[in-house]
Amino acid sequence: MHVNAPSPPLKSSPYARYVLALLLGVNLLNYIDRQVLYAVFPLIQHDFSLSDTALGLLGSGFMVTYMVSAPLFGWLGDRWSRTRLAAAGLGIWSVATAAAGLAPTYPALLTARTTVGVGEASFGTVSPGLLAEFFDRERRGRILSYFYLAIPVGSALGYLLGGVIGQQWGWHAAFMMVGLPGLLLVLPVWLMREPPRRTDAAPEQNDAPDHGGYRALFRNRSFIANTLAMAAMTFALGGLAQWIPTFLYREHGLSVATGNTLFGGLTVVTGICGTLTGGWLGDRLQRRTPKGYLLVSGWGFLLGTPAAAYAILTPSLNHCLGGMFLAEFFLFLNTGPLNTVIVNVTRPAVRAMAFAVNIFFIHALGDAISPTILGRLSDIWGLRTALLSTPVAILVAALFAFLCCRSIEGDMAKAE
């Protein structure tokens, strides 16, 4: 089934900017609903008497469902209406997040959180490629950087709202209050104009082995190296995002609300600055060399590695927060650039598939396993020692980003 007679987008038009604002708003809710869980980890652990391993499984369960669902939605996204898939995903994860607030037991909460993964996979696979169709290639780095501002800002709001609401009214209320607002945006996304797919070949032709489809992606060296860089980064950031609030609670004696407020504040400031700086630097360097986006990301990873290690090791709270500030700033430089690389090395007709495959592998190798692994290591050696695995993963991300530089020019030419 294909969408008939889509209206052509006007690049940089008021409608294109409306689409950016709408999808950015939805993506903010995406990350608020995702991260609120980690803000109330200590409260859930106390109520259900959970080990760190069981606590980490709540995060891993969501990510497993998210990554397993992504390939299906990627396939659908290249054939069906992307706006309808995005709207349906928003509705599913909003209802599931609110349902988590009604969970009376650990299995019920785990079920609700895994269902959130289905909805977010539907939106996550189709929205970047959908947004890219409304803007010229030269502006994609900045446009996707704006879109991915939702990661730091939404995450920070998830920590802030979860910490404050959870401490005042309990973790059940936190899930209810952040989940329900998403239902207000389902209809606007459903009615959003579907842009044409900018390709001369039909999707069926592009799915042939010589033209595209999943098999072609696995022959795309730049796509593979970029995905592995993002997977290593996601392992580190997923583990840090889920465990740093608890780390501040345990190791530095902060309350749930205070720890989440500090971490959320750092995340929103460094995330906005780092993401916008990365998009701006990436676009400037990309005009000089096809390796521009990758160089910004690779050097960001290299500079973020020692800062992250120092933040974990130092016994001083102030030094810990300073190290986190530097680490997050440098790591967020990659947000727009690495996602833009996916767009630039894949054909429009299979772009939703490309993001689906990317989502599957970065989470399968990343934050689908890191929360539980770190939880298990924490049960054995303590949380501080467990978190030291994350700077190693960041260094691996840098190596894959620089490796991708070797093939990026040829793969971009093939995708044109």
TrEMBL record:
Q: Which Pfam families match?
A: MFS_1 (PF07690)
Q: Is Nucleus found in the keyword set? A: no
InterPro entries tied to this protein: MFS, MFS_dom, MFS_spinster-like, MFS_trans_sf
* Species for this entry: Geobacter hydrogenophilus
Q: How does it sit in the membrane?
A: Multi-pass membrane protein
GO cellular component terms, A-Z:
membrane
Q: Does the keyword Transmembrane helix apply?
A: yes
Q: What is this protein called?
A: MFS transporter
What Gene Ontology molecular function terms does this protein carry? transmembrane transporter activity
